[in-house]
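Consider this:
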Amino acid sequence: MLKSGLMVLSLLAVILILVTTAEATESTDLWEKAEARLYSDFSSQINPELSLSSQNDYGTKVSSISLHYYQFPQASPSLTASSAPDTATEQPSSQSSLTIFGRKVIGVKYKQTHYLGSAGTETESREPTSEIDIEQQLQVRVIGQVGRKIFANVDYDDTLPESEQQKISLKYLGDEDELIQEVAIGDIHLDWRDSEFLSYNRSLFGVKVKAKLGKFNLSGVGSMTRGTPESKTFIGKSASKKREILDTSYLRRRYYRSYFDSSHLPLTLGSVEVYIDDQKGTNNEDSLEMTVVGEAGDSYTGYFDKQYPGEDFFINYEKGVLNLSRLMEEDYVIAISYLDKDGTRYPQAGYRMLKKGEEELYIDKYELKNYYYLGSQKIQRDNFLLKIFDLSNNEVTSNYQFSVDYEFGILTCAHGLTSIPDGKARLS
């Protein structure tokens, strides 16, 4: 923090001296005075007019150093490196001042992970892991004034994007009767009032000058280009496709009925819990061992992993449709629990199976077979045509109700196409 403070002091001292010595009434070499005074006072902390405070809060891991208001005094000859006893030196105005404030934040995070076995004790197969994360932030602002007309501002914040971390501005404000009314150097803001023909509002890095002579006003701006302007034109490309989809080519092991009785609909929002056992014995360290019930008094005991909504699955609570984010393998076991529209839990305790390997009883009752992938995503709605034909090539499209998710290319038939013996859906 001390090093950062010295850097900011150096930068502002250079700005203040360059501007001050440019005035016709200032003839003193202020740089040598400022350098000798600021650096000696900052390092020794013996000058009562320079207030340096340091606070450390180890609980929040924040270290803050603030350098408060500094008033340029009438310097003695000893502060001037090249002064002579008979040299008349004009001192800076008593209105010159320097204010520095900011903060330095150091955050430390330590994380240690222990792995527990099924019995709740620490397992020996995996060693504990630890992580240390250190985050630092520096925010410093320096505000200075030379006389009553010149103002300087330096703002540094490393939490902002790199191109916006450092802002420097130097401004001269003239009197009402002077020719030069304003001179701004550094980060400036340029804007014109909105009109019928022109609207402009932008932050620039450069010089802005305003002058006034009687009723004549003049403004001039010069800026530095920080980027290279460039434009590109993108033309989207689309392709026409024709596909034939068999009625048996539905999306397997992706969509399931998530209720045990239609009278339970709609399900209570956010109440569905889903657990999956992949029946692999090599990844059960974080799994939950439990027994779930099934159809006709059936039950199953295994190691289940909890699935998270919005990440592992999606639920249509109105229709009671479970959409799994990934394809289920044939031997997977799926168990759920939910609240019905009246807030009653089903099953009353534990979980109930929707899928138990490849057992036909569960497939026929819970797996939905009316979702089809059209082979493409982001389909143009106006150019989409769907026709359904039976085996004799007779069009039966009007006999079915269906909806299309054009963004993801999913076709949903209200009652499926399996009622057509060996039928097929033809997409063109």
About this structure: The two ends are 69 Å apart (CA to CA).
